[in-house]
Amino acid sequence: MSKILKKLTKKWSFLSGIIVGLLIAATVIGILFGFNGLVTDGKHVTVSVDPVLYKDQAVREEIKDLCDDAFDGNLYSWTGDNSGNDGVFVYAFKANANLDKAVEDLTADLAQWTDDYSITVVVTNEKVVINLAEGFVVRAAIAGVVFAVLAFAYAAIRYNWRRGIVAGVSVAAAMLLTGALVILTRIPATTSVAYAIMGSGLAAAITVLFSLNKLRTAAKENADQDAEELVVSSIAVKEIVIFSAILGAAILLVGIPAGVSGAWFALSAFIGIAVAAFMGIVYAPALCIPMQKAMAAQVASNSKSGYKGAKKGTKTAVKPEEKKEEPKTEMKEEAKPEPIEPIKEEPKEQVKETPKAETP
User: Fold this and answer.
1) Statement: residue 219 has pLDDT above 50
2) Gap between the Cα atoms of 347 and 163, Å rounded
3) Where are the alpha helices (DSSP H) in 133-190?
4) How far is CA 221 from CA 155, 214, 215, 301, in A?
5) Cα 233 from Cα 162, distance rounded (Å)
6) Between helices 12-33 and 161-184, what is the axis angle to 10°?
7) Cα–Cα distance for residue pair 128/276, rounded to 1 Å
8) Which H or E run contains 354?
């Protein structure tokens, strides 16, 4: 396993190329064919308005507002022309939606025009295509960007800015890759599937942090080890596999019994978990290797220049010779003060006393 990982982690540019290629393919498929909607049983409510009344813009907008208020909570709606002249408002609902009260209230509101014009409200049971609204896609994209930025900020504060880049890029790549696989496999793009794509980013953040934690510990204990060997030996394969297996099993057990929509959610979430495991075991370590080499080069450069501001735990901030020489010199100077010569007292000249003359 370690030999395979060592080969894969050396090819971060190749792995990035594969991810970009899948994103381009998914974009082309999405532009040409759009999202694959979920076809399910549902109900259609068709409000047909007399063409003469429909041409009056003020009345048309008032009728549209009445319909929107009556059918609040609809899955989607649109305004169009039927048979070239008759204006219609069509609303789609789930099969179990109770529309009796809404239709009754709407019919009463439209009674002000029905004496002079023809307005009909018809409820039919038909197949409904559930799809993602454009506004939801935009909001999900913004949320994904925010999530990636938060992952970068957390890892940058906890470790350093280089590993913050690894975390942010891995989380963003996990969400993009999961979304691309959903489009390429033509899984119906529903709201629950969008949540599964976002969940892949959260799972990727957890798996990447598993490996970054082990890398930080190994870097402190083996600062002189080769960058590739250090990163590969720090991959948290066991932890990531156990986490992914438990989470994947839980998603499948909860999602599959929940019906068609739940099954598609479970499948999308399972793909997201697999992508998150790939990020933590292969892609994030592949990004860590050039980052670790850059860190080692910086530490070596700081060591040569005598820079003392390196982080705790690094062994090369100050040369050992310099570290020992300076205190020794100071100790020698302090231990051996200049000897103080004793002050020699000059001998005092003895004053010879003149003998006194004896008096006879």
Assistant:
1) yes
2) 82
3) 134-158, 161-184
4) 20, 11, 10, 20
5) 19
6) 40
7) 33
8) none
Q: Which contiguous run of DSSP H or E holds residue 133?
A: none
Distance (Å, whole) CA 287 – CA 6:
13
Rounded to two decimals, what is the model's pTM? 0.63
Closest CA to 118 of 67, 51, 44: 51
Per-residue pLDDT band for 340 (boundaries 50, 70, 90) equals: low
Q: Which of 217, 203, 208 is nearest to 236 (CA)?
A: 208
Q: What is the rounded distance in angstroms from the CA atom of residue 333 to the CA atom of residue 161?
A: 44
As a whole-number percent, the residues of the chain with pLDDT over 90 amount to 22
* pLDDT at position 275: 95
Phi, psi of 81 (to 5 degrees): -110, 140
Q: How far apart are CA 87 and CA 81, in angstroms?
A: 5
Which tokens belong to 150? 């938060």
What is the SS3 assignment for 196? helix
> What's the CA angle centered on 33, arms 32 and 35, to 5 degrees?
125
Q: Which amino acid is at 34?
A: G
User: CA nearest 166: which of 7, 338, 12?
Assistant: 12
Residues in the chain: 360
281: exposed, middle or buried (C-beta count within 10 Å: 0-12, 13-18, 19+)? buried
Give SS3 for 90: strand
Q: What angle do CA 176, 75, 40 make, to 5 degrees?
A: 80
Confidence of residue 78 (pLDDT cuts 50, 70, 90): very low
d(CA 13, CA 34): 30
H-state helical runs in the chain: 2-9, 12-33, 51-55, 57-70, 100-109, 111-114, 134-158, 161-184, 191-221, 227-233, 237-255, 260-278, 284-305, 320-335
pLDDT digits (tens, 9 = 90+) for 258-291: 777 788 888 899 999 999 999 999 999 999 888 8
Q: Tokens in use for 350?
A: 């003895």
- State the DSSP H helix or E strand holding residue 132, giving kind and residue range, or none if neither: none
- Work out the burial of residue 67: count CB atoms within 10 Å of its CB; fewer than 13 is exposed, 13-18 middle, 19 or more buried: buried
